[in-house]
Amino acid sequence: MGAGEGSVLLRQLFEAAGYRLTDREGGWTALRPRDRRCVVFSEEVRTPTDLEPAFASDAIHRVLLYREDPGPVARSLASERGIEVFDTSTIGNALGELLLLPPGVPAAPGEPSGVGAGSLEPPPAIYPEGERIVRGRLSRPEAERIAASPDLRGTLRLVPFFVAPYRVRSPSPHGGRGASSEHIVAVHGLLRTVEGWEASLYELSDSTSETHPRLEPTLSAEEALPLALDWIRRNHTARVEHTEQHGGAVVVETRRVMPSLDDVRVAPLTLVYVPFWYFEGEEGRVVIDAVTGRTRSAPSAR
Question: Is residue 12 part of a domain?
Fold first, then answer.
């Protein structure tokens, strides 16, 4: 079998194993969305530095496959970047590992290539339609003790947050997809900061008869969503180990890998108002979250 026939056969094998192939100048790229393994095939010997941009940005297990032996320098450069290197004469022993799905990522007969190990559905919304004001847990005397200054004037104000439950499937240590989990994300409607919430703490108030100054958000739900997605992916970044053997030595490289956008599902963001105690005086301001009791940053009341 000639070199050209070998390349064609490899393409067929990767396609049959669920990889998506993309032709590129001087070769092709094979990416399997199910476990984000990526193989870059090069017809000519080019440095791993030149070929690294061909890998998918969220690839976990990366392999460079050359038609001919690239030499020790290329192998060393690839190892420094956590990339395995093979050529068409040495790929045989590793081909089975690349084509078979790793443990924890079951095959799904009849699924089209790239569907993944079970699609995620957005979780249901946690707050109903209508007035959404979170119940405060901190009384004025309790807040005053935290502020530690009797001379400050205290006012309870309602601060806006865009809130949604979300499901995320974090990367697993072995290159597959890990288990999914459900959480709550909240985007501050004024400061644009993002945080996680405990659902048991943020209950809606049964009564809104008592009026308090309300601060309106300076961004929309559409503008809050990218902030939430970025925070979710960074907050669920996994440490992934890549192991490669060089002669008698085993080299282990640890990388941090974010979940892909396909592994995050966010319910529609809901505008919720959270009570904050604002204590203000001549020497400054102390702002206390009336739900958690934490001293928080907040903009001036308007």
Answer: yes
